[in-house]
Specification:
It contains five helices and three strands; from the N terminus they run ααααββαβ. The relative contact order is 0.07. The protein is elongated and about 75 Å long. The longest helix has 31 residues. α2 packs antiparallel against α3. It has 148 residues and is mainly alpha-helical.
Amino acid sequence: MSSAEHTSHGHGSFKGLMTGFVLAAVLTIIPFGLVMAGAISSKGFLLSVVMICAAAQILVHLRYFLLLSPHQEHGWTMASSLLALILLLIVLAGSLWVMHNMNAYMMPLPDSGFTYLDDGTIVCATPEIAQQLRDAGVTGNIIVQGQQ
């Protein structure tokens, strides 16, 4: 089977696959580097950059690996592209929701050295902070982080 026959059946060429691979790698490295280096101080702008790179990476996967093209299958590609857009929005919104919940429920203690749990328990970073709260007349369940 010749190369022309092989690509005529909708399979991607080696050049197209490598282009997709390089673009996907770059779209992964850019947000990773920005987050790890702390290059952008605005969390909102950083989140926007990460989400734009994520959306672009999904589009790269659709174009180069799933081979969606506007010239194929007499309009069915448009329907599948619309479905891909809906799925893209669901994935991005779900990612933001998961990251928000992880930030709200799994982040370390704030600078004050203590935080409140939903059941009213106060978790302190050090035994000294716990003692200061007790000396100040705070009642309830006060525990030191890492100790039970």
